[in-house]
């Protein structure tokens, strides 16, 4: 491995935490004997082009500093290459880093984990999800949760996390299950009225909501969580248990495992790693060992 490391920074992540987290990460890497080059972009497209250029130029590793959106960009730069990906979580959700067991609230500790992991070659190949030419590391969300995202993204006020709380209340007021057609890789087709369908390469989304609690990014399979035709009252009662994965024991919830999943539903947008993929139908494939990541 070359001693030059590329720090891929989103300075606005977590209301400025990205810029602050980059400094201790760079210090930890330099203390471990690495040369550090920092890459930032004027917009996501420019940032991704710069990250891909660094990978093509033979950087020893790409270290993403930011939230899940920044990690998603980084995945598009390193997936399918031998370049390791390190993470210094500095966003709001940090679900990909959480799935890898990295420190979430301590960028100094995360920077040291990455520096030590690169020095000691603690690198693990894990799976990624792919939809068309788009990669994702955590969860492809569709249904009620994606409708909340749609509404929140249209709102100009309020800002931050409160925007999505307001959007959730508004979606609850208009709540109804959606008719889905789900096809798994064995060809089995399920037609169901569902509240949401989540395709998990990792267990959580939305900052620790364990919607697919059994998902393992190293087993070559997705966990597909289907929440059936809940009433509004049932949804309100079950939703808080998602943070510990307790919802999977509810009779309206089923979990399937597959390497390929096709989702069809009218008027539903798919989101992966919190980023919009586009309207359903969408087909997700689990690609084993698609990325090499630095682990504790």
Quick recap:
The protein has 296 residues and is α+β, with helices and mostly antiparallel strands. The chain has helices spanning 13-31, 44-56, 68-78, 95-99, 107-119, 144-154, 161-173, 232-238; strands spanning 4-9, 35-39, 62-66, 85-89, 123-131, 134-136, 139-143, 178-184, 189-194, 196-200, 222-227, 253-258, 260-264, 269-272, 275-279, 282-294.
What does this protein structure show overall?
The chain is an alpha+beta fold and 296 residues long. It folds into 2 domains: 4-121, Rossmann fold (3-Layer(aba) Sandwich); 136-289, Tumour Suppressor Smad4. Helices cover 31% and strands 32% of the residues. A hairpin with a 4-residue loop joins strand 8 (178-184) and strand 9. Helix 6 packs across helix 7. The longest helix has 19 residues, at 13-31. The protein starts with a strand and ends with a strand. The model has no long low-confidence stretch (mean pLDDT 90). Keywords: ATP-binding, Kinase, Lipid biosynthesis, Lipid metabolism, Magnesium, Metal-binding, Nucleotide-binding, Phospholipid biosynthesis, Phospholipid metabolism, Transferase.
Topology, pairings included?
Blueprint: E1 4-9, H1 13-31, E2 35-39, H2 44-56, E3 62-66, H3 68-78, E4 85-89, H4 95-99, H5 107-119, E5 123-131, E6 134-136, E7 139-143, H6 144-154, H7 161-173, E8 178-184, E9 189-194, E10 196-200, E11 222-227, H8 232-238, E12 253-258, E13 260-264, E14 269-272, E15 275-279, E16 282-294
Helix pairs in contact: 1-5, 2-3, 6-7
Distance between the termini: 19 Å
Low-confidence stretches: none
- Chain-averaged pLDDT: 90
Helix/strand-derived category reads alpha+beta
Strands across the major sheet, in which order? 6-5-16-13-8-9
Would you tell me which CATH topology of the largest domain applies? Tumour Suppressor Smad4
What's the tally of helices? 8
CATH class of the largest domain equals: Mainly Beta
**Rg calc:** 19 Å
Order of helices and strands: EHEHEHEHHEEEHHEEEEHEEEEE
SS elements, strand count? 16
Beta percentage is 25-35%
Shape: globular
Instruction: Give helix % range.
Output: 25-40%
Major sheet summary line? 6 strands, antiparallel
As for the number of domains, it is 2
CATH architecture of the largest domain: Sandwich
GO cellular component, one term: plasma membrane
GO molecular function, one term: ATP binding
Keywords: ATP-binding, Kinase, Lipid biosynthesis, Lipid metabolism, Magnesium, Metal-binding, Nucleotide-binding, Phospholipid biosynthesis, Phospholipid metabolism, Transferase
GO biological process, one term: phospholipid biosynthetic process
